[in-house]
Structure prediction request, 142 residues.
Amino acid sequence: MVVVAAAAALVVIVGAIWMVYRSVGPHHDTNVRYQANLLDLREKSALRGAEANPSGAPIEFPRGALALSIYLPTGSEPGKYEIEIVDQPGKPLMGAEGAATLRDHIAVLEVNVDLQRLHPGLYLVGIRQAGWSWAYYPVVLK
Prediction:
């Protein structure tokens, strides 16, 4: 009888912890609809480190929840990648991880990012393969 009572108490405690975690812990809003967007970096030159003036026009994105398909620069390998949105290198505002796969000889990384809370303006998208340094690309959020 004591074993049954202890098991019941354990179930109640685990259930309470799960409910608290779901209400205040990190979770994904299932009501967010991600808009498909393409970020083609095959012909873009990356900023390395704290380089100040990028060449070429920044990429424009809407401020919203985006399902990004990122065409990585030519020569990129499949594998695990990280991305971050920053206003300056080393100060991430948000990030995501994903695995790039080869499609028609192009390394494609797919990640979901929610840019709704960021203000319109110029940012950098940082991308790196696990263990490598960041490459930054200027973007403008509209």
